[in-house]
Amino acid sequence: MKEYDIMIVGQLSKDINTDFGGRTESVIGGAVLCSGFAACASGAKVAVLAKGNEREADPVKAFSARPEITVYGVHSQTCTSISNTYLTADRERRICRAISHIEPYRPEDIPEGVSARIWHAAGLMAGDIDEEMIGALAKKGDIAVDVQCLLRRDDGEEMAFHDWPRKKEFLPVIRYLKTDAAEAEILTGLSDRREAAKCLAGWGAREIMITHNTEVLIHDGKDFYTAPIVSRNLTGRTGRGDTAFAGYLAARLGHSIEEAVLYSAALVSLKMETPGPFMGTREDVEEYIRLLY
Question: Which tens digit of pLDDT belongs to each residue from 107-128?
Fold first, then answer.
């Protein structure tokens, strides 16, 4: 049996990014990429169940800069590709359009002879990782879900977020739930982040993260924990939520919620100062905490 701290399930994406100044570049991205790099840098033993193909988005090549990450590649005839057009210099507002999709994950994609303390579902759009797959992962260990992969839909033009019809059925099986402020409001109808977190806990989610451009918030059904975002620039804004959640999960393996939320906020603050996945170390994050927190 091969054992890991965190197994991250999600596809790579061929992203076509156009910045506020009109410059366009093509990069390999995806929640699994930023999440994997962040969790590995934080000291967790990480594996990824990454879907793609050698022609468009090669899982082995994508993670080559972090050889400590074990890659279980899942072949898909088609790959996800997303166009991101940023409307502001700080990258807070953007238009996202789906160009193409992967073949959805299925329970048979889960490798045999592998165990993990946390199974992290990190898809990009509704249909990538469905309720059947979430149920299968929940039987393997603690499951962490970034709700983006259940709310964001390809409506033919700009991708839009819609409520999750089966949320009350599946929230009770989720150990760690991640949303951003907008997603939390879509799920609950509540714009107040704390009230939204309380609502999600009432429906069965056990440990809820809500990210915002000012803070990371955690609610465990009883108490609230927050830590501020203190980035000195936002050139690396893309991947904020993925980095925050993966860093939190890695920190929670051996630390309290209070310690983990501080680490998560500092990690993502530091990451956002440089484009691309986080390439630093846990020691870099700890030094950042000493300097700015």
Answer: 999 999 999 999 999 999 999 9
